[in-house]
Specification:
The chain is of the alpha/beta class. The chain has a single domain, classed as Ethanolamine ammonia-lyase light chain (EutC) (Rossmann fold, 3-Layer(aba) Sandwich). It contains 8 helices and 8 strands; from the N terminus they run αααβααβαβαβββαββ. The strands form 2 sheets. The protein has a 6-stranded mixed sheet with strand order 1-3-2-4-5-6, with helices on both faces. Strands 7-8 form a two-stranded antiparallel sheet. Helix 6 packs across helix 8.
Length: about 270
């Protein structure tokens, strides 16, 4: 009996083109192949699916109750002046301002001494991000903040929120620093990416240059533990130095090899949700 012909191993590294090798390390749509002058049908279908997931992420409502249960800490629910998702998308300014009822709720809850830090978790442009990533980040971050001797206000869960909504909330509570965990604008390979914005001396009208941003928090990007360590370092350093934004940079990506340090090299915050 003659032997069956040997089927070549098409997935051996030496058989891959340079573009195909690069594709192993990125979610970017490269080396898709072609059929004539068109993309392969499979790649067209994958693109359509990714686009649909991104659209769904923008329009999905935040499940406040489930999020509060997952956080497993004291929470307060607030909302912006955007009454509906359509208002939120058409009028970004409404998402930056608290609804009067929410503002009153925070005003009467102001305590003495005021908290060092206010943490807000919100839907932003991807409620899916907050639903999936926020609890894991806070489960690591909060013990670190308490160990550092910082007073932390009850966590705010906000709906129809833009980044700047945390500034007004923190100012009403008298917090020295605001940390906003917010759903980032979905990409075609990342519909569930969470962003974290840290602002020292937050108040309405704060410029984006006064914020530090840690972005792409998700299992396929920056994992929750690494993000929490980076945020803890930035928080401690921001409070110690009395600043945030372009003058503050995480020098080593976390606390493993040293503390974040202020540098002269500016860092541009990523406008993930505005």
């Amino acid at each position: 009996m003659s032997e069956s012909p040997k089927v070549p191993d098409l997935f051996r590294p030496e058989d891959l083109t340079p573009w195909e090798r690069l594709r192993q390390y990125t979610d970017a749509r490269i080396a898709l192949g072609r059929v004539g002058t068109s993309l392969p049908t499979a790649e067209v279908l994958k693109f359509g699916q990714a686009h649909a997931l991104a659209r769904d992420a923008v329009h999905t409502e935040l499940e406040v109750g489930a999020l509060a249960e997952a956080l497993a800490v004291d929470t307060v629910v607030v909302r912006s002046q955007a009454a509906h998702r359509s208002d939120y998308l058409r009028r970004p300014d409404l998402g930056r301002t608290l609804h009067p009822e929410s503002a009153h709720l925070l005003r009467v809850q102001r305590s003495q001494p005021p908290p060092d830090i206010l943490i807000m978790v919100s839907d932003g442009l991807s409620a899916l991000s907050a639903q999936r990533q926020a609890a894991a980040v806070l489960h690591t971050l909060l013990p670190g903040l308490h160990a550092a001797g910082l007073r932390v206000a009850p966590v705010l869960i906000a709906t129809q929120a833009r980044v700047a909504l945390a500034d007004e909330a923190a100012a009403l509570l008298g917090a020295r620093l605001a940390l906003h965990l917010i759903g980032e604008r979905p990409g075609l390979s990342s519909p569930d990416s969470l962003g974290a914005y840290l602002t020292f001396d937050p108040r309405p009208g704060t410029l984006d240059s006064a914020r530090n941003c840690v972005s792409n928090i998700r299992p396929a990007g920056l994992n929750a533990g690494a993000a929490a360590r980076r945020l803890l370092g930035l928080t401690v350093e921001a409070l110690r130095r009395g600043l945030s934004g372009v003058e503050l940079k995480d020098s080593d990506g976390g606390l493993g090899g040293g503390e974040p340090d202020a540098v002269r090299e500016p860092q541009r915050p990523r406008p993930a949700s505005d």
